[in-house]
Amino acid sequence: MRTTTATAITSTRNNIRGKVKEVDKVYFSNKEAAAYLGVNTDFMKTLRENALISFYKVRNTVFYKKTELDRMVERGKVI
Question: Residue 24, SS3?
């Protein structure tokens, strides 16, 4: 009886996983944003200091919106 219950639980978990879609990231940390753009973190700091990019700060962590990073690339500010 235990193996049947374990099999049912495993089957249920697999069905649930199949229905969950992966979510694209909306916000990137400073390191993630730098890697996404192919620049270093010092460049990201320069962009922030010169108000060339909007950012969010939660405690001591800086975040960037993916759409804003994409917009910068489209405008040709980051190559």
Answer: coil
CA-CA-CA-CA torsion sign (17, 22, 27, 29): positive
CB under 8 Å to 47, separation ≥6 — which residues?
53
Q: Which stretch of DSSP H or E encloses residue 56?
A: strand 56-58
Q: Give start and end residues of each alpha helix (H) in the chain.
A: 2-19, 30-37, 41-49, 66-74
Q: What is the dihedral of CA 42, 44, 50, 53, to 10 degrees?
A: 180
**E strand or H helix at 28, and its extent?**
strand 27-29
Mean pLDDT, rounded, for 5-25: 51
Confidence of residue 76 (pLDDT cuts 50, 70, 90): confident
Cα–Cα distance for residue pair 77/79, rounded to 1 Å:
7
